[in-house]
Amino acid sequence: GDSDVTRRVRVVETTVFYNPIRAAIRTFTPKEEIIMKEQDKFEISLLQRDVKRITAQVEIAQDIMEGVDNIIRWRSKPLSLFSMIFFVLTVYYVEIWMLPLLGGCALLWSWLYMRYGRGKFETYVEGVANVPYYLRTGRGEGDGNLDEANMSITERFNYIYDLAATGQATLDLVASLAEKIKNIGQWKNPYASCLLMILLCGASIALYFIPIRYILLGWGINKFRKFGMDPNLIDNFEVEDFLSRIPSDPQLQELKEPSRIRRRTG
Predict the structure, then answer these.
(1) Contact 60, 143 (CB under 8 A)
(2) What angle (nearest 5°) sits at the alpha carbon of residue 142, between those of residues 173 and 175?
(3) How far apart, in whole angstroms, are the C-alpha atoms of residue 174 and residue 178?
(4) How far apart are CA 166 and CA 18, in angstroms?
(5) What secondary structure does DSSP assign to 67-88, as a single string?
(6) Per-residue b/e over 199-238, b at no fewer than 16 CB within 10 Å?
(7) DSSP state of 31
(8) Is the pTM of this model over 0.70?
(9) How far apart are CA 207 and CA 201, in angstroms?
């Protein structure tokens, strides 16, 4: 019976020696690779998650740019006035050596707020802030609960097609940006590369004679002034406009194939 079974317990004792200095050094060394791990399997839900992860990064940048645009266009006059004063004081008084210190202070403030923060933002901190950006409500399509078992083959195909199209567009945006920067250095558009070279040399001369803080002050105050006088003014981002003139690798390939050009113009 069970009483006749001899139960043996093996006790394993381990001693861990933790050196904070060695741990800090190892943090900046390559991480050990996991040899035994499960092979990834294709699932629609995983594809949906990964596409949302990609698009979420683009949405974060769009949200930040939209917030900055609202401030510059004086949609909220008290906030815009405070932001302009803060910008002027920061650029005028902050030195370059203070930037790492400001980053460290921001991390310290975030840790203290997440650990001891209380008040009206407590619900937000404990709820929304702890949820990945791509899982928050209103991000992406659907509610995130995908019932693959009850989907027909046609529904699965259409769903995968939509996800693949979204992922393709995002990946094309990232790849095109990297290719445009590469093609500038390879003089694929000689005029644009030559123009950029002249502008960089001119910027170097300007920075030699004019402190960068005054250049930033002039640029920032001019932005607030333009949109303060005309809130509906359509602004342009010069770097984006310049990169739009540079062809990506697929565009260069199309230019090398006259047949494609004839089809489009015909």
Answers:
(1) no
(2) 10
(3) 6
(4) 46
(5) HHHHHHTTSSHHHHHHHHHHHH
(6) eeeeeeeeeeeeeeeeeeeeebeebbeebbeeeeeeeeee
(7) P
(8) no
(9) 10
Instruction: Annotate 102-129 with DSSP letters as a single string.
Output: HHHHHHHHHHHHHHH--STTHHHHHTGG
Q: How high is the pLDDT of residue 76?
A: 86
Angle at 150 between CA 161 and CA 163, to 5 degrees: 15
pLDDT of res. 12: 84
> Confidence class of residue 121 from pLDDT cuts 50, 70 and 90?
very low
Mean pLDDT of 29-43: 68
Amino acid type, 238: E
Q: Give tens-digit pLDDT for 42-79.
A: 666 666 676 777 777 778 888 888 888 888 888 888 88
**Residue 60 CB partners (closer than 8 Å, separation 6+):** 133
Quickly tell me which residue has 């640029």 as its tokens: 219
